[in-house]
Task: inverse folding
């Protein structure tokens, strides 16, 4: 997978991709990350990337010309309809569709090239979203001062899903969201720390009871922190019974 990140702050990314799985995936040749300074595609003396909004108002808007020129040079296409197969152009903005595990998985499985446009200032000329980007993506319901931190999040979420990027081929399948609920709690040694004990069942060595405990505690975590997920999660009859139990336990706690 090749990433091309278009930004007015290429220096922002100086060391973020030099850690952990993203670093290893690059070293293994699974991933290439290329940074591009948007100002390279400006043509005026001041290397202007933004301008005042039509219709008035505060703030500046990123101009379309440098962004279109950048994507055109990088992909050969100046319109999303002309892009090569397996190439996606992602515009990061708070107006985008949410970045979910499902979207990250879809990108990891179907693209081999991601061009990532980091928005800035008050916005990006809408023609980028209309005609150039294949996807407008937000990493959450809050406003960042630019798309750069969101680009880091997107790259990380996609890279770790590429075949061969994780140590164990199965580890991504078990985590939060993979099954529509949050991951269960995890513990390691010592079994007692400052008076806090690891749940007895986990040290019992009883595999079936450990599995049942993990499912129940995953459901409890989800019920407490993300009850919205339970409306869409695929739940068995046993899960529903566990949720009833959890509700009773949490009321009496
Ligand atoms: N740029 C500013 N806020 C953002 C967000 N929440 N997601 C993606 N890009 C952004």
Result:
């Amino acid at each position: 997978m090749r990433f091309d990140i278009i930004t007015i702050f290429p220096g922002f990314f100086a060391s973020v991709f030099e850690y952990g799985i993203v670093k290893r995936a690059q070293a293994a040749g699974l991933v290439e990350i290329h940074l591009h300074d948007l100002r390279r595609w400006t043509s005026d003396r001041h290397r202007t990337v933004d301008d005042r909004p039509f219709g008035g108002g505060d703030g500046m808007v990123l101009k379309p010309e440098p962004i279109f020129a950048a994507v055109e040079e990088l992909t050969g296409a100046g319109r999303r309809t002309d892009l090569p197969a397996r190439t996606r152009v992602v515009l990061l903005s708070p107006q985008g569709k949410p970045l979910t595990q499902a979207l990250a998985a879809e990108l990891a499985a179907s693209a081999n090239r991601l061009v990532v446009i980091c928005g800035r200032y008050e916005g990006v000329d809408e023609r980028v979203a209309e005609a150039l980007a294949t996807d407008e993506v937000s990493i959450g319901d809050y406003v960042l001062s630019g798309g750069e931190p969101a680009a880091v999040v997107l790259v990380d979420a996609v890279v770790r899903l590429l075949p061969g990027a994780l140590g164990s081929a199965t580890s991504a399948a078990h985590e939060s969201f993979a099954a529509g609920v949050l991951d269960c709690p995890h513990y390691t040694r010592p079994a007692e720390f400052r008076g806090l004990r690891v749940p007895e069942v986990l040290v019992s060595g009883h595999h079936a009871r450990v599995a049942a405990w993990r499912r129940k505690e995953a459901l409890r975590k989800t019920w407490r922190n993300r009850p919205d997920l339970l409306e869409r999660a695929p739940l068995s009859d046993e899960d529903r019974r566990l949720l009833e139990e959890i509700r009773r336990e949490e009321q009496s706690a």
Q: What stands out?
A: The first helix runs from residue 20 to 27.
